[in-house]
Amino acid sequence: MSTANLDFEQFRGFLEKACGIVLGENKQYLVSSRLNKLMEQQGIKSLGELIQRMQSQPRSGLREQVVDAMTTNETLWFRDTYPFEVLKNKVLPEFIKSNAGQRLRIWSAACSSGQEPYSLSMSIDEFERSNPGQLKAGAQIFATDLSSLMLNTCKTGEYDNLAIGRGLSQERLQRYFEPKGPGRWVIKAPIKNRVEFRSFNLLDSYAAFGKFDVVFCRNVLIYFSAEMKKDILLRIHSTLKPGGYLFLGASEALNGLPDHYQMVQCSPGIIYQAK
Fold it and tell me: What residues does the CheR-type methyltransferase domain cover (predicted)?
């Protein structure tokens, strides 16, 4: 095996241990595209040198920067549309019927740059406008991501025209955002204040989170091994209230775990109810 291939194998091992992400054997190009800029800034000439630097300087912040670069994904507002319609038309009316007076708790896991939790917050606002006074105790959205860089973006609630253009309608832009200088927008306080952001690795303990009525864990499990994916799904189940709902990505399916989840057809889309 060549030195470059050995370095890549070592890097694959590092990434899986650090955050659970399993890189395919032919993903050298992805590593190069994600890390080239960082390696250039640091004066690092090879993947082997990068690994050596992370090991010899554990407190330099380089390890965190590498994980950030490898785990940051582009995301959309109201991605796939149907999960947010299912939330408004099925999940929220059911919650109100069986949990009168309780506060709704939603977890947006792997929230990237914040589009998902803010889309959820807008969806709740839209539901409340159509059903005034029904969600009496309101709602809290708990949003987590591994990348501290991404969370800083989330917390400001500020986005440029390029980010805004990824799936946000003009109507929602006008209703929920305010201009913040040329080509920039900031999300309005009532939508922003409903969301709490926290840095979190899906491989860590969920014990301190409490219980949720809904968990969105969309388009992230595809990066994990089958064994790790099953472990995460079991731990998510432990955070869901009985009858609570799990939303996965459009291309993701929950195979197995029949003692824990029941598939619910929503036409369009599928969600999973905790047993």
Answer: 1-275
pLDDT tens digit sequence for 189-247: 999 999 999 999 999 999 999 999 999 999 889 888 888 999 999 999 999 999 999 99
Read off the pLDDT of residues 89-122 as tens digits, 9 standing for 90 and up. 999 999 999 987 899 999 999 998 999 999 999 9
Tokens for 159? 């986005």
Residues with Cβ within 8 Å of 132's Cβ and at least 6 positions away in sequence, in order, are: none
> What is the rounded distance in angstroms from the CA atom of residue 274 to the CA atom of residue 261?
5
Residue 234 neighbours by CB distance under 10 Å = 12
Residue 68 tokens read as 């950030």
Backbone angles phi, psi at 75, to 5 degrees: -140, 170
What is the length of the chain? 275
